[in-house]
Write a structure and sequence with these properties.
The complex is a heterodimer. Chain A has two domains: about 20-90, no CATH class; about 105-325. Chain A is built from 16 helices and no strands. Chain A is an all-alpha fold. Chain A has helices spanning about 5-10, 20-35, 40-50, 55, 60-70, 75-80, 90-105, 105-130, 135-160, 165-185, 195-220, 225-245, 250-270, 270-290, 300-310, 315-325. By secondary structure, chain B is mainly α. Chain B has two domains: about 1-115, Rna Polymerase Sigma Factor, Chain: A; about 120-185, Arc Repressor Mutant, subunit A, CATH 1.10.10. In chain B, about 80% of the residues lie in helices and about 0% in strands. In chain B, α2 packs across α4 (about 75-95) and α3 crosses α4. Chain B starts with a helix and ends with a helix. Classes of the chains: A mainly alpha, B mainly alpha. Chains A and B meet through α1, α2, α9 and α15 of A and α2, α3, α4, α5 and α6 of B.
Chain lengths: ~325, ~180
């Protein structure tokens, strides 16, 4: 075996959890094993946990989790729910959310939770964008977008499961992504182009996926989706493009309207599969128009944008241009 | 030293059986990064690796506390829990993924690599290569070259003969070289 390969393999030992991850995980595990130890009243659990010599060292976030879960301290719950990355309660918030997902009774409930948490990430993003300096924003935005994408990834996986609840999940996703888009439209000018692009792409993808599921279920003669319902959902999607088109220049607007008109014709002809395909292509077309710093036809991939979010985003236009030029 | 470790481990297990949280903490401190790395090369993302690492220790605690059976080798037991959790994870995923979405896993592994921007390209390729090895080869490479366990220790952990381990090691390196040279 070559020495290089051997040395490189040894270097893989550098792959580790960060000290923050270790501390957080250990604290969480210790809280869990303490709750396994004492099974009677929740107060005795809380008292024995807090009075344990390990916990008396410092008021760690794990104590906050216990108070949150058992005593239900209004202050702690409120502090955790409003926290953003960097706040001591933020890991509490995320851990609590993950627990809710793992304890969910069924797939639909899990997906509902993931969508709810994606919604929270967007609210955090708006909060960070509105209230922090460019330097403070950088790392926090990256972290929030990472969690947002992670939630949406789980939603995509859920949508791909062709079970009994697929249609319910699709309807829920379709409804909620409209709310996401409203937030994005409302803060269009405030968000850095890269962040906006990542989120738009992810939201568009799950919206497209949910429409695909609905069309598939309709074609399978699923009784829970009528033609009227399906047409309504597709038309709503088409209408939602209106906000974006209204911001385009005149010449481009005319072109976009022509495409929408073609989409309407397909819808009128009940060509639902084609309509969904058209919707997806139209979303990509709009993204290309709305991000003029990109080369024609090029859209930044998620991994590139994730890398970019590691770099200074306070001068996002400049950064985007330099990324494209590379 | 090995005799000492064996004695120390059995004392720790006894303490955990009695509900000693400090003993659990010692096990976590010693093995958490190793278990994390073991899982890291087998799952699509750091977050999943982190979650499964936590679950490994939680299951370890539950089992030792409740089971009457004796655990002879603490180290091997932890790895076997981790391995079973990975299997369960993929079993649940397999139920939901269609064939052409298997590519999604490869793409996610690429995401895991891209996030490690501080590691150079050659290492990134190696991470991908190790992640793409078969289960057996992945285990052997991780335990021998990355965690630097001896053949004897690995044979106890995996439950195969030392000779078998050496042969698998040789084949694993060959497979790894082939993947890295093909790129």
């Amino acid at each position: 075996m070559s020495k290089d390969l051997k040395n490189n393999l040894a270097k893989l030992r550098e792959i580790k959890m960060t000290s923050e991850q270790i501390t957080n995980q250990k604290d969480f595990l210790m809280s869990q094993i303490q709750s396994h130890k004492v099974s009677n009243s929740s107060w005795s659990t809380l008292v024995s946990f807090i009075s344990h010599p390990y916990m008396m060292k410092s008021f760690s976030y794990v104590a906050a989790v216990f108070v949150l879960l058992i005593a239900g301290s209004a202050y702690t719950m409120s502090a955790a729910s409003k926290s953003i990355p960097g706040n001591i309660f933020y890991p509490v918030k995320i851990s609590f959310e993950r627990m809710q997902v793992s304890l969910a009774a069924d797939e639909a409930t899990k997906t509902k939770k993931q969508i709810e948490f994606a919604d929270r990430r967007l609210a955090e993003l708006v909060d960070i964008n509105d209230n922090l300096s460019p330097v403070e924003k950088q790392e926090k935005v990256a972290q929030v977008v990472k969690y947002f994408n992670s939630s949406l990834k789980e939603v995509k996986t859920s949508l791909a499961k062709d079970g009994d609840t697929a249609l319910d999940v699709a309807k829920l996703v379709n409804e909620k992504t409209q709310d996401f888009e409203n937030v994005l439209v409302g803060h269009y000018e405030d968000m850095p182009i890269t962040v906006r692009s990542v989120i738009e792409k992810e939201v568009s993808a799950i919206k497209y996926q949910s429409l695909e599921v609905m069309v598939a279920k309709y074609n399978q003669h699923d009784q829970d989706i009528s033609k009227e319902m399906l047409v309504e959902q597709l038309e709503e999607r088409i209408i939602s493009f209106g906000e974006y088109i209204s911001q385009l220049e005149e010449g481009v607007q005319a072109e976009a309207l022509e495409k929408l008109s073609a989409m309407q014709e397909l819808l009128d002809a009940d060509e639902f599969v084609a309509v969904v395909e058209f919707i997806n292509n139209f979303a990509v077309y709009l993204e290309e128009i709305n991000n003029p710093v990109l080369e024609e036809g090029q859209v930044l991939g998620i991994s590139e944008i994730s890398d970019e979010l590691e770099i200074d985003i306070s001068s996002s236009t400049e950064t985007s241009t330099s990324v494209v030029e590379e | 030293m090995k005799a000492f470790k064996k004695i120390r481990d059995s004392l720790i297990l006894e303490r955990i059986k009695k509900g000693d949280a400090n003993a659990f903490s010692e096990v976590y401190d010693e093995y958490s990064q190793k278990i994390y790395r073991y899982i890291y090369f087998k799952v699509p993302s750091e977050q999943i690796a982190e979650d499964l690492t936590g679950s490994t220790f939680l299951k370890f605690w539950e089992y030792i506390g409740k089971s009457e059976k004796q655990v002879d080798n603490l180290q091997a037991f932890l790895y076997s829990i981790a391995h079973n959790l990975i299997v369960d994870y993929y079993r649940q995923r397999k139920e939901s993924l269609e064939i052409d979405q298997a590519k999604q896993i490869v793409d996610e592994i690429s995401d895991k690599i891209v996030n490690r921007i501080e590691i150079d390209q050659e290492i990134n390729k190696l991470i991908e290569a190790v992640s793409n090895l078969s289960d057996d080869y992945n285990d052997i490479i991780t335990l021998y070259y990355i965690e630097q366990y001896s053949v004897k220790e690995i044979s106890k952990m995996i439950g195969k003969t030392e000779n078998n381990i050496r042969v698998t090691l040789h084949r694993a390196i060959k497979a790894l070289k082939k993947i890295t040279e093909d790129e």
